[in-house]
Amino acid sequence: MTPLLAWQQADWQRLSQYRNQQRVPQAVLLVGRSGLGKQRLARQFAESLLCSSPQAESYLPCGGCKACQLLQAGFHPDFFQLSPEEPGKDITIDQMRGLIEVLTLKPQYSQYRVIVINPADQMNLRAQNAFLKCLEEPADRSVILMITEQPGRLPATIVSRCQQFALTVPGRAQVMAWLATETLQQDLDLPYSLAQGAPLKALAYCTGNTLPLRQECFKAWLELANHKKSPVQIAELWKALPEAQLLVWLLSWVSDIIKCYYGASTQQLGNPDLQQNLQRLAQRLNLAGLFNHYQLLLASYVVVDSTVNKQLLFEEILINWQILNPISTSPSLAAKQISH
Ligand SMILES: [Zn+2]
Q1: Residues lying with their CB under 5 A of ligand 1, a single-atom ion
Q2: Is the confidence at residue 340, as pLDDT, over 50?
Q3: CA atoms within a 13 Å half-sphere pointing along the CA-CB vector of 22
Q4: What is the average per-residue pLDDT within 37-56?
Q5: How confident is the model at residue 338, as a pLDDT?
Q6: Rounded to the nearest whole angstrom, what is the distance from the C-alpha of residue 60 to the centroid of ligand 1?
Q7: Can you tell me the distance from the alpha carbon of 9 to that of 25, in angstroms, rounded to the nearest whole number?
Q8: How remote is the CA of residue 191 from the centroid of ligand 1, in Å?
Q9: How close is the Cα of 65 to the center of ligand 1, in Å?
Q10: How far, in Å, from the CA of 145 to the mean position of ligand 1?
Q11: Is the per-residue pLDDT at 46 higher than 80?
């Protein structure tokens, strides 16, 4: 069974109350940023709803009943998941039709039928319209758990028919204590700060290759600023990298440059380890240009999970970033001009 994450006790109590009071909403929209454990919480709630003998008071799944076993083996007939067929693609009308068909049947094994839609904001327009009909005519004993980082991308007609559930963001001390139990890494301040306090993301910075990858991307971004590489070269280099993550890094670097411009201290930066370089950029870049670039990054972040051409999107961003950096202030070029 999916263990409850350390910081999700309060969230779990709120969710299990629904069950305890026999008023489980037909659709719950779980909202929270990346790294808080939305999928884990949804899975746990699904397990609890399907389990035939959940634990008293906590309503945590027993892990031993037939329903729990079927779910663990991936064969529970009343559990469905709807996600894009490939990351970044839409949830399509065909996929939604499959779900609608399922909803016409009664739950076959458990008291409830549970459907998890993740990420819910990836439904395309036709899928959304079909889904709206499901919400308007609720199926018997069916619970739909929708997961999203960006509820603003869902139409109000859908959101207003769901019970919204915002995940708790844990405090710094709790995240630090949890990280210390999960990783041997000593320096937890940087991962915490880069993950903006989201525990699972911070752990990924401690254990995976995310940190070296970020350093590499920052180096390439600086080379572009110094006119040592071309935007097309870097776009080609970044082609295989996770686009949303890249945009989050770019947004945080530009936002930190703006903060440096206003004299922010190291503690106020999202990237304290890069302060020296960010400071230098703040000294030579134009503030209006930086704000424009930030807007471009934000607009790109909104569409990055759609079917937009990602290579072109990044080329545009990188060209804009290079233009922002005047050639004359690049150290190597400045030296050349002096020698001529
Ligand atoms: Zn069970």
Answers
A1: 51, 61-62, 65, 68
A2: no
A3: 0
A4: 94
A5: 33
A6: 9
A7: 20
A8: 36
A9: 4
A10: 19
A11: yes
Torsion 110-111-112-113 (CA) sign: positive
pTM of this structure: 0.81
Token code pair at residue 77 = 């007939």
Distance 211 CA to ligand 1 centre (A): 39
pLDDT in tens, 98-135: 888 888 888 888 889 999 999 999 999 999 999 999 89
CA 64 – ligand 1 centroid, Å: 5
Pairwise CA distance, residues 290 & 321, whole Å: 9
SS (H, E, C) the chain: CCCCCHHHHHHHHHHHHHHHCCCCCCEEEEECCCCCCHHHHHHHHHHHHHCCCCCCCCCCCCCCCHHHHHHHHCCCCCEEEECCCCCCCCECHHHHHHHHHHHCCCCCCCCCEEEEECCHHHECHHHHHHHHHHHHCCCCCEEEEEEECCHHHCCHHHHCCCEEEECCCCCHHHHHHHHHHHCCCCCCHHHHHHCCCCHHHHHHHHHCCHHHHHHHHHHHHHHHHCCCCCHHHHHHHCCCCCHHHHHHHHHHHHHHHHHHHCCCCHHHCCCHHHHHHHHHHHHHCCHHHHHHHHHHHHHHHHHCCCCCCHHHHHHHHHHHHHHHCCHHHCHHHHHHHHHC
Confidence label for 332 from pLDDT (cuts 50, 70 and 90) = very low
